[in-house]
Amino acid sequence: MIAEVDFQSRHKRRGIRRFAERPAVLMIEAMICMSILGAAAYGLHRYLYRSEDFLVKTIRVEGTRGIDPKDIVKTAGITTADSIMRIDVERVEETLVRTIPYVKSCSVTRCFPDTVIISVEERTATATLLVDGHAFEIDPDGVALQELPSNAVHEGPYISNVPDLGVVQIGDHLTQPALAAALEVWSAFSKMSISREVTVSELSAVSPNEIRMYCDELPYEVRWGRREFDAEAARFDLLWRTKNKQLGCAEYLDLRFGEDLACK
User: Fold this and answer.
1) Which domains does the chain have, with CATH numbers?
2) Model's pTM, two decimal places?
């Protein structure tokens, strides 16, 4: 008796069995690969975060003019015991801007393997605010930078009589409209050639529409307002030059009415 064997069917069954086993093999291989990659990543993480090769050795401070770089480093809280990988860049930047009023903005950069660069944009004092017998240097944005001792040399003119100020703290961003107007007047005037010949001692900021300027060389006050400060400064400068510095005013010069200058 001759038995007939269906080799083709046998090969088909073996192929089906191997195909069914293949996903399980692939899954095992994938798990092995993932374990190897995970172990490698963990090892790399431990090396980067714990290796002495990445400890901070140099802290470089850039952009400072009036701020002592040592104060920047101290406030940043970065030391040579820190790994460059562990530094929270955003936290350091936020701390510097919040803590040091003279820091307008800053950026912290890691330079591998061991250097940190702190780049600072400083605020610059432009005028001095008088509040209840206290003097505060302020920048063009109205930020109180520091309180000055009595009779200390101060920056720019005094700004006085600003309403609704209350208690001023170092680092406060003062947004009173009258103060903002006085700062704009000072900025507009400073751009004119007359500012190199006339010394502004005080800006009385009674309201945004009534800024009174007092100058050492002039016997009269100059009145500004109505938010056209650049145009008013240009008119004042032109009048100063065309009249050969002799405006004939004894009490005030009012720049608030366009070409109709009021002089008394």
Assistant:
1) 53-122 (3.10.20.310), 127-263 (3.40.50.11690)
2) 0.76
